[in-house]
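User: Can you model how iron/sulfur cluster sits in this protein?
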Amino acid sequence: MKVTYCASPVLAVREFNMANRILTSNLLKNDKLDVNFNYSAFDCYMKYDKQSFESAKLFDHPFRHSPQLWKETLRLHLSTYHYPEIFADKFYTDVILMSCLSNWYDYPFIAALLNKGHKLVLGGTNFKLWRSPEWVRNMMISLGVKEKYLDNFIIVYGVVDLTTDLHKIIKDWKNVKITENDFSTVWDCEIDYLENIKNTLCNVVGMDLKSESARKNFSNVTFLLNNLCWWGKCAFCGFVLQEKMDFDRGVKAERIAQNIINTARRLDANRIYFSNDYFSFNKKTKGILEILKNASEDYKISCYSGILACKDEEYLHNVNKYNLKYLKIGLEAGTDFALGMLNKGYGVAEVDDTVEKMSKILNKDVEITLHSIVDSPQRSRDEIRQNYNNFLRWRDTLRESGIHTNVVASSYAIIEEVNDDKCIDNVFIQPCEIDEAQSGRIKFLNELRNSFGDVVNLKSYDHVVPFNRIGFNGETLPTDFEVVPEETLDELYNKNWGWG
Ligand code: SF4
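Assistant: Here's the modeled complex, given as structure tokens:
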């Protein structure tokens, strides 16, 4: 059976991620499938990305302060303009597996492929793909898919591992939920198609595969040991809704470490990124890190961490001992009120204390990124400004101690979707009708419409809940970027990159 595989185009070039490696390893091992990996889609994406990045510089847009939000801007631009049609022209088989779907940017691409008459197998571990087939069908109607193509897709729910029979799933052509997994097989993935992607990407951007810049740009390889966040309580968190993936359960540290070493060698990557939701040092992780430390390669290892972990001095000593070089800290907010609303489990005093410990204990070659949510729940303009001033203060304490530290505005994480259990629903953040005064993602979308005009089609974002932040006095608070002085934003997002 001939099929074409394509990862979500907006995620395709991020890194050699684990989900793509597992899925393509599965496809390559299945004798009954003749799989074509669609590299031209990546090529097309990279060229377009470069062009939109150039043209974006011409706009004097408030999101210029945050590379993350700029990227979102570009992706939105990418998915709503003519690009999905160009992308859809690059496929030549009837059946297309489109996976690792991540978010709302993907829907216009799915619509364009359906409108070309392709049959799609949709899947991905992200919780947003728990959407029902009816929901996806309605979304396709609103994105203009012709009636005759509306049922030309199936959805594969659940996690693919090396034991999943994708040939059977495609042959049966029914929506399916994978209920049986052998997660340990993930550590047997020794072939995938990512090496070739690296060649393609270097060609597109005109980089020598062996050059230092190619090495720097395409040398991240991601490993997920599990997605079981030990905290699991943040009010805005969507990750806890994901399918549980416990890849390291019952698997020896040696087997995992050997697979990490083999994969990094095969992809010529030296940056190993543990994408666990909240990294902890247990017997297993210590065993893996010990082996990596003693390997002949000089790995740069990074992970997601947080204040609750880093307030423990032993944790910081372990970061040094096991050679972790980059911590992404999901700090998120800088006032007690916002931290309480987000249910992060700590307040400003605890962050002060933790930052102090980090600056004293961590080796100076550890790099840190503090993540902050834009438009977090706040009660007044003063509180919004305080939020940013505290981030500046924490960053500077770490920088003054000699540690490379940056702050990034990660996203509008709050109330991204209609989900009764997850909405922060009280007097300070109110779901509301769309209006100009909004904070959060709707504000972001309105801004985009103002900057980019009619090309921004909001139909695929209908599920985003608009909300207002309400201050002490009942006033609606605008987005952070309108309240915080320009100089503070410029100073805060002034990057001092190390290797991360
Ligand atoms: S620490 Fe991260 S993964 Fe865990 S609950 Fe909070 S946001 Fe979710």
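A couple of observations from the model: The longest strand covers residues 324-332. Residues 229, 231-234, 237, 239-240, 277-278, 306, 330 surround iron/sulfur cluster (CB under 6 Å).
User: Helpful, thanks.
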